Fold this protein.
Amino acid sequence: MVPLSWFLILGAALFCIGVYGVLSRRNAIGILMGVELILNAVNINLIAFWRYRTPDQLTGLVFAVFVMAIAAAEAAVGLALIIAIYRTRNTVIVEDVDLLKM
Amino acid sequence: MNLIGLLSPELILLATGLLVLILDMAFHGKEGRREWLPFVAIAGLIVFLIAASFLWGTHTSLLSDMMAVDSFALFFKVVAGLSTLLVILASWDYFQGKTPYEGEFYGLLVLAALAITLAAASTDLIMVYLSMEFLSIGSYILVGYLREDPKSNEGAIKYFLYGAVASGIMLYGMSLVYGVTGTTNLAQIAQVFAAGKLTDDMLWLMLPALIMLLAGFGFKIALVPFHQWSPDAYEGAPTPVTAFLSVGPKAAGFAILMRVFLAAFPAFQLDWAAVLAAISMITMTLGNVVALKQTNIKRMLAYSSIAHAGYILIGFASVALDSPSLFNGVNGVLLYLLGYLFSNVGVFVAVIAFENATGSNQIPDYAGLIKRSPWLAGTLFVLLLSLTGIPATAGFLGKFFVFAAAINVQFYVLALVGIVNAAIAAFYYLNVARYMFFVPSQEESHIAIAPALAVALGVATFATLLIGLYPQPFIEFANQSVRLLGVF
Amino acid sequence: MTELYDWVRLIPLFPFLAFAIILLFTQRNQKLSTYLAWVGIGLSWLLGWTIVFRAIGDAHVLEEGFRAPIFSIPTGRGLLQLGFQVDALTTAMLFMVPFVCLMIFIYSKGYMHGDPRYSRFFAYISLFATGMLGLIVSDNLLLLYIFWEVMGLCSYLLIGFWYEKPSAMKAGLKAFITTRIGDVIMFLGMLLLYSTTGTLSFHEIFSEETLHFLKETTVWLPLVGTVSVAPVIAVLLFGGAVGKSAQFPLHVWLPDAMEGPTPVSALIHAATMVSAGVYLVARMFPIFALLPETASMSVVAFIGGFTALFAATIALAQDDIKRVLAYSTISQLGYMIAALGVGAYVAATFHLITHAFFKALLFLGSGSVIHGAGTQDMMEMGGLRKKMPITFWTFAAGMLALAGVPPFAGFWSKDEILAHAFEEFMHKGVVSWPFFVWLVLSLGALLTAFYMARQVFLTFYGETRSHHVHAHESPKVMTYPLIALAVFAVFLGFVGVPEEFPVLGPLFGHNLFHHIVGHGYPATPLNWGVMGLSVLLALTGLFLGWLVYGRNPLKEGQPDPMTKLGPVYTLLRNKYYIDEFYSKFIVRPAVALATLLFRFDNSWVIDPFVNLVGKVGAWLSDLGRIFDLNIIDGIVNGVAAVTAWFGKILRLTQTGKAQNYLLVAILTVLLLLGLYLYLPM
Amino acid sequence: MDFPILTLITFVPLLGSLIVLCMPKEKERLIKQFSIAVSFIPLILSILLWVNLEKGGGIQFEELVAWIPAIHVNYHVGADGLSVPLIFLTALLTTLSLFYSSFTIKNRVKEFFFLFLLLEMGMFGVFVSLDFVLFYVFWEIGLVPMYFLIGVWGGPRREYAAIKFFIYTLVGSVAMLLAIIGIYLNTGTFDIIQAAAMRPFVENFTLGALAFWAIFLAFAIKVPMFPFHTWLPDAHVEAPTAGSVILAGILLKLGCYGFFRILLPMFPEQFHRFAPIIAVLAVISIVYGAMVSMAQWDLKKLIAYSSVSHMGYVMLGLAAAAFAIGSKDMLTSQAIAMNGAVFQMFNHGIITGALFFLVGVIYERAHTRDLTAFGGLASKVPYYYGIMLVAGLASLGLPGLAGFWGEFFVFRGTFAIAPVYAAVGAIGIVFTAAYILWKVIQHVFLGPFNEKWANLTDMETYEKITLWPLVIFMVLFGLYPPLIVDTINAAMTRLLSGL
């Protein structure tokens, strides 16, 4: 069957794409998506590790489930904040949001 | 003690938080402010503290080793309770006319406190993650609480984005840890390493894992270079929230940092201690020197709190739990946090009082404060002295212990950088004092302090001096709390 | 019965009390102040002479000395004992000092009459008397030094007594600082002595074993190397004497000291300050003479001899009646020092005493002249003989004494010095210091006689050379002291007549003076040749003086014949330009250096340091900001470039600010990662 | 110890200051009178202290109460022949300063007297503390009131001077903090006496050297010694009269006291080894300070710099004593040097205190301190002239006045141990005479009268009352030194024999 490392590589790749997205997206929503990618990379890792190392304990699965749940909550809050910004500034382009600096 | 008993503090907080939210909702749209809402929250917090005090001395774990009930957790329960209490007092009439949703604020604050207590108690990576996210999400909302205020929003969004990514990275690290050890329970992780049956390539994975964890914790504590969200968030957030952020999440971050690293990764102490020492030097230096130039007191305090994170980290970087001396590092961190809690929140309370009266956060506007309100100036000065680390104040005790810890493990350089920073810090704290006392102001109008603020200020100042002058009980408390479950 | 000697403690106390009371309470009441001062010094005088006359008959005291301790200061486990004493030398001084002081005190009443700070004057001179009396009765070097300094202070106060006059003010300061320089050297000598022997008490220092110990001990000096300690101590102490006794090169303060009221000049030049220097050398003589072959004696002999001649020459060309006397004082002190330099201990002391009397007389006389004539410039005087007879006759007596005409006091003492020097020379048989001293001093005798003659003729003979001089005799309160002193100036010499001297020798108790102070020192044998020569020189000097100034006295407007000497005259008149030299090469550079240092301190120590703190702080803070903004942006842009590189696939983007932060975080993670991977574990 | 006299001395001022804090600030008369009254209590007690002190009895009047048992920190106070005179000096100068200020301080009276009493407590605390932490606490507490005294009631550049003073001292003291911890970790006690007895650093010289220099820095800045003196001119010049008096009179002594109480007993080996360096710095301080003050035209600055010079004597004596550690036959010279140093500390307190008061007196009237602006005042203000003359002469070490003995003993002790240093240092004596007599006396009082000051008034009664005690002490100790040397000598001999 497929070796563990393939999954890990997939996870790593996904993680990097997520990070890149986070860094490169101008749109706050886009960044949020990048974050989601990162979390999914994590999930892949967790599941893979669970399956290959401790299939008899559910730790990995449970962890993954929690991550998804939290991801959802996080996204909700994030979107709320983005909307608030949009209300006051009419933009979701993060680099325009720079009132606060030294 | 049964499960309910052991969990009672958390449950009480949960109940209080929900109760406040519900009450707020129930009475929504009614005329006038609901001044009594904070009372509910305060009452709840007091009950919480009392309940917590019953757990003194109990050392056990529950929820299948997800959570610990130990002195360490207890200590942070107290920290969380006290800081939240003070912040609620501070925000009493801050929101007047600023937002219609005042009630929720208190609810959220209480729940954030709950998050802190959970974070400090969690002994499993999953639990760590959950509690941290709980705290983070709460914090995001609090920072962005003034929806109409663009600055508030901006602070929130930056905080959020940074936090989301940071937790993502941390999480990736956790997944690796899990992968290597096959467990998420801190104690078991430690056992795995102790057993030493791991292959090298497995161990190799631990390094990125640890670093990623560090990134996550560093974000919470606002360690350089994971600090950059904090000035913006601090400045943007409503001042009471800033006060809370500068203490609560920091404390939680340290709690988790210490518990995870001490409980799960003692095997790697040499590695992470070195990294933490380096980070702590950078952190305090950068925080202090950047603070020098700030003219907005909130921003100045933001950087000063970064610097303080650096000092605190000295203690943990030079942790030596098995050393015969009293200065094992951890108790230094705890004492520092305790003193810092009162001093820093106190300073913020004073800032809020000033802001309420003048609407300004600019340091030059503090000119002639001694004339306008001697007590405000006096107490603020004492608190600033404490932050500077002058003896007879709480701040000195903390510095004393962390420096002692550094010397104890012969981290002389670390201690040296520490004291140099302490001297630099005096510049900007004294600068505020200079305006308050030396510079005459054209504005002579008296500044009235609302009773709630007065109480908060009084408590903070008193506690600062008490800890400074009679530290014995607090030291014992800290020494007790050093006992983490699973660690000796 | 030693009780009497115990009273010696009181001798300095009386004038001190007078000083304190006057200064604190009776400033308003001039009469009362005067009488207080008189009573103070008077009591000291009575007590002093009582002790003297008892001591003269008391061989034990004269040889062993009697000590009256005051208090002791703990020094670690030991004690530093301070006290007073009576011994031979003290007795001799005690005979002179209080009496001369008393005379001057009385005289002052007339002289200072009507001065706005009349009372304070008497307070100061009382303190001055305290200083001198204390000095001569001290039984240890430290106490001596203390009183020594007290006198320095008084000289400062009194010379600058009319401080409204800038010249007086400056003179006071000059006197203090100049003597202070000498004092510091002496201070070091004292320290060396103390730390070598562990004691400062005279009778302990001069005890056999200590002297022996000093003989043995050596000290390492930078530049010089290891030398025997005694001469070092001696020379250092001598530094103090040079300052106080106005010997070359520290003599410059004394002529300027003429700015003070004349009684002060009398005090300083006759009874007290300057004699203190000689007294010190005489007191410490055993140390000087411990190793005669070493530098100690020769230095003393040279300085003394040189000064004696050098000052005498300057005196030739001065017009100020007091300045002439001032330089004669310096010269005479040179005699004493030189005498000590050739070991003529007794002779030096003898000259010290006699000189004190007649010099006091001369100064008070000149004061009386000034008081009468209203000027100090001899060129304006003349013909005062008739108008001020008493002053004239007394002054003349003093003059003859100073010139060394027999049988006046000065003759005997001076002759003893010369004789001793010559004796030494004969004894050695080689041309060395004694010869030099004898030669120089004999020459000096000639000059002395000449300039004194010049002074007298210019002042008292001929006609007054200035229309606004309307002289009158001074009041009795001033003239009586003159007479009293004149008596001593004439007869005092007889106490020191050499034993062999026909008639007079036996008549006056076989050199009484030598019996008092000279035990342990061989009496100088009478030497007719030397004596004859010195008399001859003195008379020649007087004759020349008469030739130039007496035969046909100077008329108004006539130039001083001295001017015929041309450049030499100018040189002498300007005192060899030594003052100018000092101010140019010592004072100004010192002040300049101080200013320089201050500049340094102000702009190179303080400012940079603070500005460093400030600037560095600001700079770092900027750096921090740069770090937080620009550098990060920079990195970002760099990364942006990198992304642009494989942005062929993805759309080229530039990052937003919030993302900068994230970028830093992630870069850090990667950095740490890299570190760990490449650092050996 | 039946009667907690030291505790009373230390904390009565604190109590007083708190009471002052509670008084309404309109009641200025009351505040002033009350503060002065309060300051008399420690004064009387300190006299009792001196009277009851058993000479050579070592540490006495001890009080030992556990303060922070968790880290073995005790409230441990005590006094001996070294500290008692300084305690008395502190009490005396504070009382006089308060009295003087009650006439001269016009604005923000309440704060002034509150802070001043606080300051007094801090100073007492340092002199009585026998526990490092306690010592450090008081050491730092003294900083804050002085910071305000300079910053609020000071001259034109007061803010700069205040912050400079604070930062300099802070830098020093934080360094000391590390050393204190180091000592604790080596000895397991914060007790100064015990720790010293344990000789923490005999086996580890290098570590000891580190700690030594750390503490040295703290004290040297306070003294101040040559390269660290630069905060002093500003602080003195800007501070109000009373502030300068206390600053010069007491705060500088804190540093010297530290050298005697902590550095010498704790690090004999290191002190011995580094004595040459310290001696050189001391000599530089003496000569350099004297020359620089000779270059001043601002009266106050001149006296400020003279302090650098005079404290140099103290350090010289100390360094000399350290020089001879180990050579037993030097004990006498060592003791003499140390006696001289301590005596000099005391003298400098009264003399320079008096001088600063006198500067204040003239400044109150003329509103200038420029020496060139005066001239010939002697006949106009004879009383002032007289006092100034005495103080000045005492300062230049005229025998018969207190100043002489300090210098004499220092030089005597030093000369026997390190002659060259003493010889070079002696140059300072001449310059001191020069700047006192030439700059101060001559430019202000002598010469033709400057008509500008035609209506200058002589000293007021309150000014006389302020200055007489100091003058009396100058003369008293000048004429009969055993009065104080007995006390000091006993303590010093004990201290030295302990090394």
About this structure: The CA atoms of residues 98 and 301 of chain D lie 23 Å apart. The first strand of chain D starts at residue 60 and ends at 68.
